[in-house]
Write a structure and sequence with these properties.
The protein is built from 25 helices and 8 strands. The protein is α/β, with parallel strands linked by helices. Among the domains are: 98 residues, Fumarate Reductase Iron-sulfur Protein, Chain B, domain 2 (Orthogonal Bundle); 135 residues, Rossmann fold. It has a 4-stranded parallel sheet. The chain has a 4-stranded parallel sheet with strand order 6-5-7-8, with helices on both faces. Strand 7, helix 24 and strand 8 form a beta-alpha-beta unit. The longest helix is centred in the middle third of the chain and has 18 residues. It is globular. It binds iron/sulfur cluster (2 copies). The site of one iron/sulfur cluster has 15 residues, from helix 4.
Length: 428
């Protein structure tokens, strides 16, 4: 039993869990429900009960409370004992899925993402529907509950994946060429192009390449890469996640680059955990080379090349899998601060999950909606022009929430703002 083995490995740390409850006030499901069983401490208690044979993995309590977890890992950040909750959750979910088959919508998405052909068709259809403008028109006009509520959320998410026009200041849309000294060559990188990212957010991948090249990084094309497997790992399909991770480890290792770059927080976190997922040296070595795009440009004492002014009020929302899982907290802010005339406005409670978590809002309509509205309400207090966040799921979830609230605030990736600043300087 994999969970039993995982807990065995964690025994020391679990033994040190002082039941302090520090994790409770940061847990979005506990905040909403106030039920100990829907807190990190409560879920760890359920895992332990199963491992010790006091509870069956098919029991309603184990299934329900683990299923309600968003997997945001905010609990890990505050835990003084260093309990590796995310690692345990993946194994606990694997056990839950083995004990009881999940409903069709939960099975459908990981199955679709694991198959290249089916995924391309589904994402292609998504682009066609998005291109009609219908999702944007429908989002916010449908009832928020029941089946229509789910349709409305899906439409809002699709609408929020479209490329955004950034109207800021009198220079909007004009490219003013100004000379730029070629940056020193820094090395070679490969980019994880991703599945949802390449299917619905190709513009973010293009912006990522633009900013990498403008900052002196040679971007190497890596064919043979595929879906990272994060959705599969998070939903308890560890075998599928391992299969997908093996493909990527082999493709990126063969590329012989200095760094593997991710612009999607969930995918980056999974790549970084490839070593412990596959338990082999090649995966460990590849995992060590992984960087989020913001780290490569604005981490470790680096500063991005400065482009043209972009006078926008920007609210940065840190994706959980960047902030809590990868612990990349300051470089996205430094990247945004490097853009002249861009004003950063803080979101109250920014480190709290937006409720994205894959298709959580569709599978947990009420709870996901409550978590999402808390985020939308917090964003609306900032008076921002644009929201920036580095994960496709968060872009879609927050975008859908804003559309549902009747707001037309765009949600973009931080590199889109940097690329726009470079475009206005006439460099791309
Ligand atoms: S914060 Fe860590 S030590 Fe404290 S109750 Fe939560 S899991 Fe246990
Ligand atoms: S991962 Fe997030 S939702 Fe799950 S227990 Fe931890 S804080 Fe709560």
């Amino acid at each position: 039993m994999e969970l039993r083995a995982a807990l065995e490995e964690q025994k020391d740390r679990l033994g040190h869990c002082v039941h302090c409850g520090f994790c409770l006030p940061v847990c979005p499901t506990y905040i909403q429900l106030g039920d100990e069983a829907d807190s990190p401490r409560g879920r760890l208690h359920l895992m332990r009960a199963v491992v010790e044979g006091r509870l069956e993995p098919e029991s309603d309590a184990y299934q329900l409370h683990l299923d309600r977890c968003l997997g945001c890992r905010a609990c890990e950040t505050v835990c003084p004992s260093g309990v590796e909750y995310g690692f345990l959750l993946e194994r606990a979910r694997a056990l839950a899925v083995e004990a009881r088959r999940p409903p069709l919508p939960v099975r459908l998405l990981p199955a679709l993402m694991a198959r290249d052909g089916a995924r391309s068709v589904a994402l292609g259809m998504g682009r066609v529907i998005r291109g009609t403008g219908i999702p944007e028109t429908m989002a916010g006009r449908l009832p928020t509950t029941g089946l229509w509520g789910r349709v409305g959320l899906a439409m809002g998410m699709l609408a929020s994946s479209r490329p955004s026009r950034l109207d800021a200041g009198s220079d909007a849309g004009k490219a003013k060429t100004r000379p730029r000294n070629d940056p020193p060559s820094r090395g070679r990188v490969a980019m994880l192009t991703g599945c949802v990212q390449s299917g619905l957010f190709a513009h973010v991948n293009r912006a990522t390449r633009t900013v990498l090249e403008a900052n002196g990084w040679e971007v190497v094309e890596v064919t043979g890469q595929g879906c990272c497997g994060a959705l599969h790992a998070h939903s308890g399909r560890l075998d599928q996640a391992r299969e997908l991770a093996r493909v990527n480890v082999s493709a990126f290792t063969a590329a012989g680059v200095d760094h593997v770059i991710s612009n999607a927080a969930g995918c980056g976190a999974l790549l970084r955990e490839s070593g412990e997922l596959l338990e082999d040296e090649a995966a460990e070595a590849m995992a060590k080379s992984v960087r989020d795009i913001s780290e490569l440009l604005a981490g470790e004492g680096r500063e991005p090349v400065r482009g043209a002014p972009l006078p926008l009020k920007v609210a940065y929302d840190p994706p959980c899998h960047l902030h809590h899982a990868q612990r990349v907290t300051t470089s996205p802010l430094r990247l945004l601060e490097s853009i002249p005339e861009l004003e950063l406005v803080p979101i109250p409670g920014a480190e709290e999950c937006c409720g994205g978590a894959g298709i959580y809002g569709i599978t947990h309509q009420d709870l996901g909606g409550r978590v999402g509205r808390r985020k939308t309400d917090a964003i609306l207090t900032t008076g921002c022009d644009v929201v920036a966040t580095g994960n496709p799921g968060c872009q879609m979830q927050i975008g859908a929430g804003l559309l549902a609230a009747g707001e037309r605030i765009r949600v973009v990736h931080p590199v889109e703002l940097l690329a726009e600043s470079y475009r206005r300087a006439g460099w791309s």
